[in-house]
Specification:
Strand content: 5-15%
Distance between the termini: 20 Å
Protein name: lysozyme
Number of domains: 1
Number of helices: 3
CATH topology: Lysozyme
CATH class: Mainly Alpha
CATH architecture: Orthogonal Bundle
Helix content: 25-40%
Catalytic activity: Hydrolysis of (1->4)-beta-linkages between N-acetylmuramic acid and N-acetyl-D-glucosamine residues in a peptidoglycan and between N-acetyl-D-glucosamine residues in chitodextrins
Radius of gyration: 13 Å
Organism: Amblyomma americanum
Keywords: Antimicrobial, Bacteriolytic enzyme, Disulfide bond, Glycosidase, Hydrolase
EC number: 3.2.1.17
Length: 87
Amino acid sequence: MNTKATNRNRNGSTDYGLFQINNGYWCSPGRHNICRVKCRALLSDNISAAVKCAKKIYKSSGFNAWYGWKAKCRGRNLSRYVKGCRY
């Protein structure tokens, strides 16, 4: 897992960190900064801020907030990825 991952999107926004949190809405500098966190804080090996923000995103929009989930996971059986997990 790469906590320092960034991805530049076609619309000019950037996704940050382990959870690929987008600066268009969730972190600053960005238009809205709904998570009230600097995007660079989401690149830390201490993932506390990233987890807090990801939980806020999920509570607001579910997995639909993440393009990767919509494109690769939605509607698919993903049970093998959580086998043995307690959640």
